Amino acid sequence: MASNTEPKPNILVVDDEPLVRDLIVQILEPEHVCQTAGSGEEALEIFKSGTFDLVMSDINMGGMTGIELIPQLLALSPDTVIVMLSGNQTIDSAIDAIRSGAFDYVKKPFDIDHVKVAVDRALEHHNLLRDKRLYENHLEELVRKRTEELNYLSYYDLLTRLPNRTLFEDRLSQAILLMQENQQIALLFVSLDGFKKVRDTLGHDSGNEILQAAGKRLLSEVSENTTVARFEGDEFGVLLPQVASTEEAAEIANRINNALKKPYNTGGSEVFITASIGISFYPDDGKDAQALLKNAAAALLTAQEGGGDLYYFYTTGMNSDALRRLALESNLRSALARREFEMYYQPKVDVATGKISGMEALIRWNQSHTGFISPSEFIPLAESTGLIIPLGEWILSDSCLQGKKWHDEGYDLSLSVNISVRQFQQPDLAERLSAIVHETGFDCKFLDLEITESAIMNDPEVAVRTLNELRQLGIKISLDDFGTGYSSLSYLKRLPIDILKIDKSFVDDVTNNTDDAALVEAIITLAHTLNLKVVAEGIETKEQLEFLQRLNCDEWQGYLFSKPVPVADFARLLVAQQTS
Ligand code: C2E
Ligand code: MG
Ligand code: MG
Question: What rounded mean pLDDT belongs to the chain?
């Protein structure tokens, strides 16, 4: 039955007898909306402008028969239910009609109730058919949408609505196939400098806004046949399928750098971020998409290491270095947690007595897969990634704990710990270091921090302030690698330091280069007039040692006495010295 919300069912009554039509209409109205047709042909005509829930059709109507009409109606409207009106003499045809697709039949002359029951049943069937079809359509639509979404997800980035790396690689491969002679393809690998820091500070939403804005800016700087894609994080790819020259690529890279460094408005504030770009060309820099991407990434890394806001073209050789550094960097991040670091100690020897007066703590990284990696390689990396801060604090704490143990065993040793440039630049260095040393129970009097000239010369004014703060804590300061950097002897007077460490490169030649010998002599003399203690590092031969003894150098360090060694070996050196 028709409910309030549903429209009334419409029924088409087809019969060549006007009386029959009228009778049926009278029975069915007003609960149903009825229309009539005098022939099968007329019924089809009416169906062209709209379908019906139910058709009640006579079988024999002069022209087209009701049975011929059935398949044609169903072709136009499969959900329409057909009920045949059959005279007594045509009961067989009624059965034929049902075989052809009619739902039911009503025998003439009509019994009113019988007609009503048949119509209700037929309409119920119609509703079932309609619901089933709606459901099927709905399912189909769902499947279609899902497929579309999945397609979208596998080729596009949802955040920026840009192609993703997969689609980018696909287009790059296609561009390689389609490339014309005398043309080249340029691939720009773009990354936002320091983006992660910005996102950590401003939050995820702001980070996303910046990425979206950056994507739009990239798009607006390139022509239509250029693919701009977002890879992952803050990395984007730009594919220029046809560039006439490297200059053209450079010009676009320059434009992109300029566009990306304009301020970003997010969360009510202005954010400034620059970008780095690495560029590779097909065919010169790689045979396929993978090689081109790898090489552009290597060039990107070089741009980032150059300080950002730069673009770099790929050059051979970038890769192996860059890759190794990349791998090291990611390993370095977890090395501290994996306890792969170990402090080694190299004795410092008193020139006058020949006894161990202290030790320099030198870090060693025993990487699980590759073995030992030199601090000269990973300390700069730790610096550039900022990892040096937690690493440096671990170094200080670990070596002070060890120093305290030796003090407790009765050895009055001084402890030298290297401080890197970046560590030294921390404004609250003295505070942080004293907290750490305090916790270990090591006496600050015995601690000296080795700082290089370049760390100090970076910002001498601030450096002097920091050095004074450290010295107020009782900590001594060594100027490490003296002679390799600015070597400004005159400046030395103004620095609040206690110890001068003459670099190995000077010591190397003192016995066969008179200039170097004279210079070392001058340095030692000057240092002594400034009340500085002098330590010579990298002594490998007896001759070198004898030379330094003659000049009254205070202490020395070098393989001639011992290499840097693990704690247990150092302890053995101490014991051996006591018994000798
Ligand atoms: P540095 O502070 O000037 O340390 C002296 C370096 O010379 C050490 O190299 C030491 O092993 C080496 N050496 C000592 N005597 C001799 C010798 O007679 N002959 C030769 N050929 N070499 C000698 P190492 O341990 O590889 O460290 C290299 C540099 O890495 C250090 O130079 C220092 O700048 C840095 N470094 C090492 N450990 C640490 C650390 O714990 N913290 C920081 N910030 N830097 C460190
Ligand atoms: Mg040192
Ligand atoms: Mg040194």
Answer: 90
